[in-house]
Amino acid sequence: MPVPAEKSDKRGDFLIIYGSQTGQSESIAKQLCERAETELKLSPRLFCMDKTEKQFWIEREPLVVIICSSTGDGDAPDNAGKFVRRLCKNTLSNDFLKDTTFALLGLGDSNYSTFQGVPNKLDKQLRHLGATELIPTGHADDQVGLDQVVEPWLERLYPALLQYFGIDASSLPPVTKTTVVRPQEMSSDSVTPLTNDLSTSLNMASDDNAMDCSDSSQAPQEAILKPNKLQYPEDKPCLIRGASKLSQDEALRVPVASVTFLAASVTHTKLDTNEIKWQNGCKLVGTASGIHTVPVVGLIKLTGTKARKEKREIQIDISDTGLEYQPGDAFYFIFPNPRQEVNYILQRLGLLMLADNRLDVVVNPKTEKKNAIVPAHIPPVCTLRYLFTYCLDIRRSPGRPLLRVLADYTSNESEKRRLLELCSSQGVDEFTAFVRQAGLTIADVLHAFPSCLPPVDRLAEQLPRLIPRPYSAACAQSRWKNRVRFVYSLVEQPQGDGRSYARRGLCTDWLSGLKVGDRVPIMLKEAARFRLPQSASSVPMILIGPGSGIAPFLGFLQEIMHEHLSGKNTCLETERWVFFGCRQLDQDFIYRDELEAFERERIITKLVICESHEGCGSTEAPTARLKYVQDAMRAQSKEVVDFIMNAKEGGQLSKVFLCGDAVGMSKGVWETFIEIVSTHSGMSEAEAKQYLVKLKEDGRYIEDVWS
């Protein structure tokens, strides 16, 4: 066990830092910090990684715990980039961190070719700079369930922390507590009626004029989600019923419930929320501008009537914003949660009548949580409707910590038992299958467990922040001036597998309901690596963009066309290949005319089209029936390999840009590149993979992918 450097007089002082794009790393870091304070009686300091050289200097830290994820393109999360860049400077000596001990937990998704890219880089660099490992680095995979690695890693970390500080770890409370819960017979009918007892959900502020709002029949007529009653199988595990072994286990190991720290109270007074700053004015990491409200000036349906996945275009006018962007840049769209889902949640909690009354959110004076504060994105004065519409993500699948909290507020014993099973160590597989992979929402869980009646305070503590969604500009400002277009797909998720209602993507469903003339709030996203290169007209490029992934490349090609037409660069001999794929050519070949025009003008030197399913009556099937981009790459594998290994134009090395779905396409393309490079270069598969990793490191293989 390494000996800590004497750099703090505070007993148990150590640093916890996190890098988080979606909030998962931050959530784990906060749980770790809370437990270290309340149960281990240590003194952790918690910061996001970009507070480096402001709130902390890692080289001065005897002990640091790092929890970090990777983004889809392999870059650091927006709030970690500064830290990673500093740590990876070539000027740092190999004893820069000789007095630092670290523990590292990486979060990732093996669907991405850059799986654990940033955590692996940090791990390598920490060791290179002389830091000492406290416990083995953890590599959690969201594809199979983060908890399968996170929980055991934390179980190793807690006693290691105590040992580091010379504290007896024999009495350490476990991460999970063994809870004796007698198995309950459960059927879809074994539920208790929902009560509208307001006192169990929210405090009414002391007010002589306070009204009794328990009678929801007096609520104004509102659009309210009406979940469907699902038929669950009797003979196999499902959301409400576990496998026999799990359901008969009398010693469930369940997480320790988080400490409550918020208190909410509501008055009889209505509150106008129009003047409340979006999410309390809390800055969103990774933005390059403030919020601008702009008009919608165009809406176009791009796909045919028989397309399986509808694609649409939306155009906005940024004339009054002064914003400037480059091809490859993206804009955040700020959107609300669906009103009918918000109303359902509030109705389920017996609070719909109070939806528009003044809500005060403060730190609970009785909390045992140290240094508790109201989350920065929650206005201390707002309304229930505002809180659930603009601040909290009600669509994110509930995590095990939230299920653990919900169990405490579930009165029916069989329902409570099942929630404890789903959040238990023994029930991780069923949680992954029936909650996370099924894509359930908090509304689905409340519907499936009718006696669950959590307080608003606890939901505000547990539900993550509602994050705007970024969309790449599908045009170049040099050509479109102040009009910007974006492409999105409408993905339908049907009822079933625990989902009590059909739904579309949260932001895309909102976009689809907009009309010309509506005004939408946007922010420019910070520039990333996925951007048209300098002197782009002379850079050989392979652009791979199936489906809506073609969007940013339209901006690339428009900019090159602009440079050509303006006489800035007349180089039309530079090789630029575009690989586009869709399900059916006659239904899904979006921007066909535009792409073919680029090919005629030699802006595109090779346009490769793939069709995964034969079109409805179409006679235009691609040559040799190329179904997927991977098939097209294999069909001309030698040319592709020559292109990426040898293509140069005026000293410029070729680049590969990839945009689209990570789950099937991105990983498949990456594996195909490894395969064909190995075949035509004489490299082994491992050497070919390392060659491609080097391309990524050198900025020659760049991805913008999503799942």
TrEMBL record:
Q: Which Pfam families match?
A: FAD_binding_1 (PF00667), Flavodoxin_1 (PF00258), NAD_binding_1 (PF00175)
Q: Which InterPro entries does UniProt cross-reference here?
A: CysJ-like_FAD-binding (IPR003097), FAD-bd_FR_type (IPR017927), Flavdoxin-like (IPR001094), Flavodoxin/NO_synth (IPR008254), Flavoprot_Pyr_Nucl_cyt_Rdtase (IPR001709), Flavoprotein-like_sf (IPR029039), FNR_nucleotide-bd (IPR039261), NADPH_Cyt_P450_Rdtase_alpha (IPR023173)
A GO cellular-component term linked to this record: cytosol
Enzyme Commission identifier(s): 1.16.1.8
Please state what class of enzyme this protein is: oxidoreductase
Q: Name one GO molecular function term.
A: flavin adenine dinucleotide binding
Highest taxon listed in the record's lineage? Eukaryota
Q: Where is the Flavodoxin-like domain?
A: 14-158
List, in alphabetical order, the GO biological process terms annotated in this UniProt record: homocysteine metabolic process; methionine biosynthetic process
Supply the alphabetized keyword list.
Amino-acid biosynthesis, FAD, Flavoprotein, FMN, Methionine biosynthesis, NADP, Oxidoreductase, S-adenosyl-L-methionine
Annotated FAD-binding FR-type domain ranges read 289-533
List cofactor names only: FAD; FMN
**What name does the UniProt record give this protein?**
Methionine synthase reductase
Protein's organism: Plectus sambesii
